[in-house]
C-alpha cells in the first residue's frame, strides 16, 4: 500500500501576538508547526505502515523553510519527503494550492491520499476535497476511523453532525482527518538523529503536471479584503475527574487566578 | 566558536519539551506526594527512544550524542526531578559503563534491553561505610569455579527495585585497596540477590531508592565488567559521565523553578501592582536567569566534550558543582518570590526546592567536585 500525506506548515496560533498599533499578526519569532489535523493524518498513515507495511510519503507546498515540518515527519517515521517549492507557486489561495498538489500527485503512485481536515491558519477545509475533485478520486472527509479490508477495499467511519456514517470505498481515494481521531505520536529519538541526514526531494514547477495559469497568484480567484485576528485562548488544561472533585478544582483554580 | 544549537538539537528539544509538558508534568505532584515510581512514564519514554539516547543504533539505541541526552534530562527535570534522575541513573550509570567497558558479548547481551527501555538499569557503589570514601568497600566477590560469590550490601540505589540490570562494585582483593575493587554486571533474577529497605527521602520522592542485598550470589565470570581490579577506575569514570546527567537534572530544576516564578510574578498582585513591577523582583529574576544560563553553558560544554572524546572529568565536575548550587539557590529564591503559596504543595516550587538539594549530594557531593576540580589545577 502506498500512502501520501499532504501537510501544511502553519504558525503556532497559540503563540501568535497582535501588533497593538497596526492590528496585524506578529509572525516574527512565532514557531511554525505541522498543522494539527495534518499531524493526525501522519499518525493514521504511520499506523497503516505498522499494520500493513504501507510506504508513506509526505508532501508539502511552501517556502524552503517548510523543510522543517518535513524533517519532523521523517522523525515521526515517514519514508519519503517531498517539498513543492517554486516562485510560480507563491501567493496561492486554496484552489491554486490544490492545483499544485494535484499536479505533484499526478506524478506519484498512491492507493490512499490523506490530508488534514483544515488548517488552523486558514480554517477553510477546502484543499483536501479540491485535490480529490481535481484528481477525480472518491473522497471521505471528517474521517474517524479506517480499516483495511481485502484487495484495496477500505471500511471508513466518517464523522457527521448527527453521528457517524460507515462507508466502503475502493483505492485509490482521498480522506481528510481530524487530529482528535488520530492522536499523533511523538517524534522518536532515532528518527530525530537521522532526520537531517535523509533526503528531502525538492520539486519545482518542472516536476509537476499542471497548467501554469492555475498556479500561484494568477491561479487564485480569492482576493483578501481584510485580515483580522480572532481572540486568543491559552493552551488549556485537561483534567479527568469526578464532577464533585471537578467543582472543587475549578473553584481552587478561579481563586488562584483571583477571578473569585 | 558556534553557540547555536543545531537543527537536530532544535527538533529534539521541540519533541522533549512537548513530551515533558504533556506526559511528565501532569504526574509530577502525584509522583512526589505518593512516593510513586512513574513506571507508565518510563514505558512512554521507552517507546520513543528516551531510554537509549547515546547508545549506538547497532545496540538498539537512538545513536544520539551526550548533548541530546543532557537536554533530555534537563527538560524532563524541568517538569519532574524524579523522572530526570530515573533516565540519568539508567543511562549514565548502567548503560554507559557497559558500552564503555563491556566486552562485545556483554554489549550485545545487555544494551538492546537497556536502550529499548524494556530493562531499567541501576548502579551500586555506595555502602553504609563507603560513601565519599568509595575505597572502603565491604561488599566482596570471592573467585569460585566459573565465577564469583558476591556478599554484602549497597545503599541509596536509584531505580533499585525497578531495575533488571545492575553494575555492582565489590572487593575481589582487599589487600590491594582501590586496585582490589572489581565491577560486575548483576541480573535481577540472581539467586541470593534481594531488595532491602526503601528510603523515605526529602526530594525526588518518586525515584525508588533502596538497599541492595547480596547473599552468596553466584555471578558468572562472563559478568565481570572490565578486568579484575578495574572496578574503582570504572566507577570513577562512570561517575564522571553521571555528573553530566545530574548537572542537567539540576539545570532543569532551576529552569523549571525560574519559569514558574516568571509566570507567577506577572499574575500575583500586591499593593495594586503585579510583583513583576517591583525592582526587587526584577533584580532577583535577572540574577536567577544569569546563573541558569551560565549553568547551561557548563553542562552543554561538558556533554559536548564527552561526545567529542575530549577529556571532560573536571568539566563535568564544574558543571555539576555549579548547576547543583544554582538549582538550590534559584529554587530557594523562587519559593521566596512565591511567598506563602510557594511554601505550600499547591505550587510545584517547594517540590523543586526539595528535589534540588540532592543534586548537591549524590554522584559526588559538591565537596567532592571541588576536590576533582582543584586536583586538575594542582596536578
Describe this structure in words.
With 260 residues, chain A is α/β, with parallel strands linked by helices. Chain A has a single domain (2-214), classed as HUPs (Rossmann fold), CATH 3.40.50.620. Chain A is 26% helix and 25% strand. Chain A has a 9-stranded mixed sheet, sandwiched between helices. A two-stranded antiparallel sheet of chain A has the order 2-5. The longest helix of chain A has 17 residues, at 36-52. Chain A is globular and about 60 Å long. The relative contact order of chain A is 0.18. By secondary structure, chain B is of the alpha+beta class. Helix content of chain B is 54%, strand content 16%. Chain B is built from 10 helices and 10 strands. The relative contact order of chain B is 0.12. The chains are: A alpha/beta (260), B alpha+beta (379). At the A-B interface, α2 and α5 of A face α1 of B.
Percent in helix of chain B: 40-55%
CATH architecture of chain A: 3-Layer(aba) Sandwich
Number of continuous helical runs of chain B: 10
Silhouette of chain B: globular
CATH superfamily of chain A: HUPs
Distance between the termini of chain B: 28 Å
Number of strands of chain B: 10
Radius of gyration of CA atoms of chain A, rounded to a whole number: 20 Å
Average pLDDT level of chain A: 90
First and last CA, distance of chain A: 57 Å
* Cross-sheet strand order for the largest sheet of chain A: 11-10-9-12-8-1-6-7-13
Amino acid at each position: 500500500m502506498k500512502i501520501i500525506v499532504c501537510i501544511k506548515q502553519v504558525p503556532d496560533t497559540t503563540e501568535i501576538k497582535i501588533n497593538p498599533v497596526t492590528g496585524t499578526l506578529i509572525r516574527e519569532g512565532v514557531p511554525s508547526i505541522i498543522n494539527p489535523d495534518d499531524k493526525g493524518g501522519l499518525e493514521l498513515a504511520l499506523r497503516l505502515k505498522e499494520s500493513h507495511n504501507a510506504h508513506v510519503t509526505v508532501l508539502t507546498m511552501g517556502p524552503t523553510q517548510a523543510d522543517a515540518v518535513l524533517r519532523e515527519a521523517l522523525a515521526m517515521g515517514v519514508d519519503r519527503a517531498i517539498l513543492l517549492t517554486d516562485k510560480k507557486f507563491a501567493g496561492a489561495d486554496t484552489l491554486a494550492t490544490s492545483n499544485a498538489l494535484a499536479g505533484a500527485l499526478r506524478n506519484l503512485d498512491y492507493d490512499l491520499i490523506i490530508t488534514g481536515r483544515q488548517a488552523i491558519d486558514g480554517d477553510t477545509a477546502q484543499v483536501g476535497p479540491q485535490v480529490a475533485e481535481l484528481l477525480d478520486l472518491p473522497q471521505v472527509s471528517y474521517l474517524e476511523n479506517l480499516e483495511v479490508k481485502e484487495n484495496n477495499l477500505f471500511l471508513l467511519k466518517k464523522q457527521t453532525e448527527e453521528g457517524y456514517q460507515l462507508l466502503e470505498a475502493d483505492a485509490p481515494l482521498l480522506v481528510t482527518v481530524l487530529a482528535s481521531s488520530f492522536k499523533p505520536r511523538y517524534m522518536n529519538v532515532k528518527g530525530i538523529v537521522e532526520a537531517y541526514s535523509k533526503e528531502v526531494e525538492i520539486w519545482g514547477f518542472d516536476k509537476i503536471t499542471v497548467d501554469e495559469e492555475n498556479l500561484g497568484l494568477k491561479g487564485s480567484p480569492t482576493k483578501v479584503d481584510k485580515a483580522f485576528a480572532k481572540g486568543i485562548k491559552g493552551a488549556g488544561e485537561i483534567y479527568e475527574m469526578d464532577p464533585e472533585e471537578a467543582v472543587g478544582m475549578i473553584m481552587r483554580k478561579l481563586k488562584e487566578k483571583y477571578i473569585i | 566558536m558556534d553557540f547555536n544549537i543545531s537543527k537536530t538539537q532544535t527538533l529534539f528539544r521541540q519533541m522533549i519539551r512537548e513530551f515533558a509538558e504533556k506526559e511528565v508534568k501532569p504526574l509530577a505532584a502525584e509522583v512526589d506526594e505518593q512516593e510513586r515510581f512513574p513506571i507508565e512514564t518510563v514505558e512512554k519514554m521507552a517507546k520513543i527512544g528516551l531510554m537509549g539516547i547515546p547508545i549506538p543504533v547497532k545496540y538498539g539505541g537512538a545513536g544520539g550524542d551526550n548533548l541530546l541526552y543532557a537536554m533530555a534530562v534537563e527538560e524532563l527535570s524541568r517538569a519532574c526531578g524524579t523522572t530526570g534522575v530515573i533516565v540519568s541513573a539508567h543511562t549514565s550509570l548502567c548503560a554507559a559503563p557497559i558500552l564503555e567497558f563491556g566486552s562485545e558479548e556483554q554489549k550485545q547481551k545487555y544494551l538492546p534491553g537497556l536502550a529499548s527501555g524494556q530493562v531499567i538499569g541501576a548502579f551500586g557503589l555506595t555502602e553504609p561505610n563507603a560513601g565519599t570514601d568509595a575505597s572502603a568497600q565491604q561488599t566482596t566477590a570471592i573467585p569460585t569455579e566459573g565465577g564469583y560469590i558476591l556478599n554484602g550490601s549497597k545503599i541509596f540505589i536509584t531505580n533499585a527495585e525497578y531495575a533488571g540490570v545492575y553494575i555492582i562494585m565489590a572487593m575481589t582483593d582487599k589487600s590491594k585497596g582501590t586496585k582490589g575493587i572489581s565491577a560486575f554486571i548483576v541480573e535481577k533474577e540472581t539467586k541470593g540477590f534481594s531488595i532491602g529497605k526503601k528510603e523515605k527521602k526529602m526530594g525526588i520522592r518518586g525515584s525508588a531508592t533502596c538497599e541492595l542485598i547480596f547473599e552468596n550470589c553466584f555471578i558468572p565470570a562472563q559478568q565481570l565488567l572490565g578486568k579484575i581490579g578495574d572496578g574503582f577506575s570504572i566507577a570513577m569514570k562512570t561517575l564522571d559521565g553521571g555528573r553530566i546527567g545530574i548537572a542537567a537534572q539540576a539545570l532543569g530544576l532551576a529552569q523549571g523553578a525560574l519559569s514558574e516564578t516568571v509566570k507567577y510574578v506577572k499574575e500575583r498582585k500586591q499593593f495594586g501592582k503585579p510583583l513583576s513591577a517591583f525592582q526587587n523582583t526584577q533584580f532577583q529574576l535577572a540574577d536567577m536567569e544569569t546563573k541558569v544560563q551560565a549553568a547551561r553553558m557548563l553542562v552543554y560544554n561538558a556533554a559536548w566534550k564527552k561526545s567529542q572524546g575530549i577529556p571532560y572529568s573536571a568539566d563535568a565536575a564544574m558543571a555539576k558543582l555549579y548547576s547543583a548550587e544554582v538549582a538550590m539557590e534559584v529554587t530557594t529564591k523562587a519559593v521566596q518570590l512565591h511567598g506563602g503559596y510557594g511554601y505550600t504543595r499547591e505550587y510545584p516550587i517547594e517540590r523543586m526546592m526539595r528535589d534540588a538539594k540532592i543534586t548537591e549530594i549524590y554522584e559526588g557531593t559538591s565537596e567532592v567536585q571541588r576536590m576533582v576540580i582543584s586536583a586538575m589545577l594542582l596536578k
